[in-house]
Amino acid sequence: MRRFLLITGGTVLVIIVLVGWWIFSRPERGSVGSVNTAFRWLGPDDKIVVDGFDDPKVQGVACHISRAQTGGIKGGIGVAEDTSDASISCRQVGPIKILGDLKDGERVFDEHRSLVFKKLQVVRFIDRQRNVLVYVAYSDRPIEGSPKNSISSVPIMGWSTP
C-alpha cells in the first residue's frame, strides 16, 4: 500500500510540473478577441480565439490567427486537446524590412494545442518568382498530424507615406 501511495504521489507531482511548464511556457500573444461557440455548464465555454503577431524577421508584416479553443473542465485547467482547425491572414502594415536571412519553412509562430504532443505552427515560405511571402498555419503531432491548414500571402511591395 505504501509503495502505491509513493507511485501515485510521484505521478501527481510529475503531472503538476508538466501542467505548470505548459501554462507558463506558452508564447506571449496579442489577444484580439474571442467568440463563444458552445455553452459549457462547468468551466469556460468553447470558443474561437483570435490573436495577432508580427513576423519576427520581417518588419512591416502582421498576421492574425484564429483557432478553436476547447472549454469545459479540461479546457479550464489546460489539459484539453484542441482541434486542428485554424485560419490565418497576414498583411503588409508598413514598409517591409527583412531583418535577417529568411529560410523556407521557418517557424514564425507556435502554440501547444494539447498538454504535450500537439502543436499549432505558422511557417513562412518565400515565392521568389512572384516576390511574395507565404504563411502556412497547420497543426502537427509526432505520430499523426492533420492535413487541415490555412494559407496567406503577402506581396513585397513599396510603401508610400502620405
Structural account:
There is one protein chain. The protein is of the alpha+beta class. It has one domain. 18% of the residues lie in helices and 46% in strands. The chain contains 2 helices and 8 strands; from the N terminus they run αβββαβββββ. The strands form 2 sheets. It has a 4-stranded antiparallel sheet with strand order 1-2-3-4, with no helix packed on it. Strands 5-6-7-8 form a 4-stranded antiparallel sheet, with no helix packed on it. A hairpin with an 8-residue loop joins strand 7 and strand 8. The relative contact order is 0.16. About 7% of the residues have low confidence.
Summarize this, please?
The chain is built from 2 helices and 8 strands; from the N terminus they run αβββαβββββ.
Question: How are the elements arranged and paired?
Answer:
Blueprint (H helix, E strand, L loop, with lengths): L1 H23 L5 E9 L7 E9 L3 E12 L2 H6 L8 E13 L7 E7 L6 E9 L4 E9 L8 E7 L7
Antiparallel strand pairs: 1-2, 2-3, 3-4, 5-6, 6-7, 7-8
Kindly provide the radius of gyration, computed on alpha-carbon positions and rounded to a whole number of angstroms: 19 Å
Question: What count of structural domains?
Answer: 1
Strands, count: 8
Oligomer: single chain
- Give the SSE string: HEEEHEEEEE
Binned, the helix content reads 10-25%
The N- to C-terminal Cα distance equals 77 Å
| Arrangement of strands in the largest sheet | 1-2-3-4
Q: Shape from CA axes?
A: elongated
Mean pLDDT, rounded to whole units? Answer: 79
Please summarize the sheet with the most strands. Answer: 4 strands, antiparallel
- Put simply, the count of helices is 2
β-strand amount: over 45%
Uncertain stretches of 5 or more adjacent residues: 17-28
Q: Helices and strands: which structural class?
A: alpha+beta
